[in-house]
Amino acid sequence: MNRYIDLTGCGTALITPFKDGEVDYEAFAATVDRQVEAGIDFLVPLGTTGETPCLDDDERIKVLQIAREHSAGLPIVVGGGTNSLKHTVASMRMLEPHGVDAFLIVVPYYNKPTQEGQYQYFKAVAESTDKPIVLYNVPGRTGANMTAETALRLAEIDNIVAIKEASGNRGQIEEILRNAPKDFMVISGNDDDTLWMMEKGGAGIISVASNVAPHHMARFVKAIREGYHEKAHALNEELTPLFRNCFVESNPIPAKAAMHAMGLIENELRLPLVPAQQDTYDLMVETVKALNVI
């Protein structure tokens, strides 16, 4: 158990459904219900997968409120990061009264901060709240990597409790796993890294694929956690096409295509993202058919 919150297992980086240009709150509530029923361990609204930069403040609050109302008590880790300390703190204070258990804070994007800049930024963020903070390293989107050294420095701060690592840099991730405090959680940010990271001691996954196949992902992560090696590897092989195909276009474009094909949401995004090209849509239909979720 962590210092503040248990984020082991599979969490879902929730999509935000749209309909006719507006947030489809009814579809979002049904999406959360589907995750809970599938046995997902925690929920992550308002992250990258949720197209959060394209949501206004009222929409973000309502999405969070619905996630809380339909969560059945599961932990809720809320995306709250921007590329400005002032705006990040303001966002956290706005969201905190509406059901936040922890905040997921991304490395500031576009600015390309140095390692010392990242350290000072996250230290200031942590000092601004009593809530647990999950670091989020995704250099493919931010343009700046957080090194293992910086992550380990930040892990010493009491309410910085975990890192979502999506760098794909195995050496870096293994260094964090080896040297972090034992109650600091290292969570995969890439579905296809889940198996090896958890076998090395990672806590779990914040998943895109579980939007599409939550039962499969919950079963997969449970098999890893319970030490069913052969079953876990078989499920990993079965899920690998979904892991890969969810990123043939920018996330969440393929995931939304799949969920539309399944009749769960409209195939709608907000600019600058656009719906999947036809070949991607067809690929996602084939992918979900192979998993028997359509």
Secondary structure: number of strands = 10
Mean pLDDT: 97
Integer-rounded radius of gyration? 18 Å
C-alpha end-to-end distance: 37 Å
Query: What structural class is derived from the secondary structure elements?
Result: alpha/beta
Indicate the CATH architecture.
Alpha-Beta Barrel
Question: Helix-strand pattern, N to C?
Answer: EEEHEHEHEHEHHEHEHEHHHHH
CATH top-level class: Alpha Beta
Spans of at least 5 consecutive residues whose pLDDT stays below 50 are none
CATH topology: TIM Barrel
Which range best describes the helical content: under 10%, 10-25%, 25-40%, 40-55%, 55-70% or over 70%? 40-55%
Overall domain count: 1
> In what order do the strands lie side by side in the largest sheet?
4-1-10-9-8-7-6-5
Strand content: 5-15%
Total count of helical runs of at least 4 residues: 13
For the largest beta-sheet, the strand count, sense and barrel status come to: 8 strands, parallel
- Looking at the structure, what is the overall shape? globular
CATH superfamily heading: Aldolase class I
